[in-house]
Amino acid sequence: MNVVELMQKAKDSVDIHQVFGEPYQVGDVTIIPVARAGGGGGGSASASIRGGEGYGFGIQPMGVYAIKGDTVKWVPTVNVNTIVTGAFVVAVVAIWKAPRILKAAGKHL
After folding, report:
1. Which of 69, 66, 64 shows the shortest CA–CA distance to 21?
2. DSSP string computed for 29-56
3. Alpha carbon of 2 to those of 8, 47, 52, 70, 108: distances in Å?
4. Which of 23, 33, 41, 108 is disulfide-compatible with 10, CB 3.0–4.6 A?
């Protein structure tokens, strides 16, 4: 597979169905799943050096559109990894700064 074929394969693997899923009904509400899709590819080759090529593709769920009558509501997904990472960073900073804050507070009492 040459670079042109690789790029065509990467292009062909991306379409609107990776971003907006098939709508489905839950009672009188229509649900449309939404994701963020991205990818890329590349390669190299020359007459004297063996080249290589590759591509990657990823999808991340973002949320759903909930449609009821004339009302459309965006419902984002909850990324638990982001929440846990944020809480961990806050905890580390708090533990690191706590002695300095307590020492400074003790001087003012």
Report:
1. 64
2. EEEEEEEEEEEEEEEE--SSS--EEEEE
3. 10, 13, 9, 50, 71
4. 41
Structure tokens at 83: 């929440």
Tokens of 43: 């390669």
C-beta neighbour count of 64 within 10 angstroms = 20
| pTM (predicted TM-score) | 0.54
> Max Cα separation, the chain?
77
Residue written as token pair 């905890």: 91
Domain layout of the chain by residue ranges: 3-77, 78-109
Say if residues 9 and 43 touch (Cβ distance below 8 Å): no
Report the C-alpha gap between 62 and 67 in whole angstroms. 16
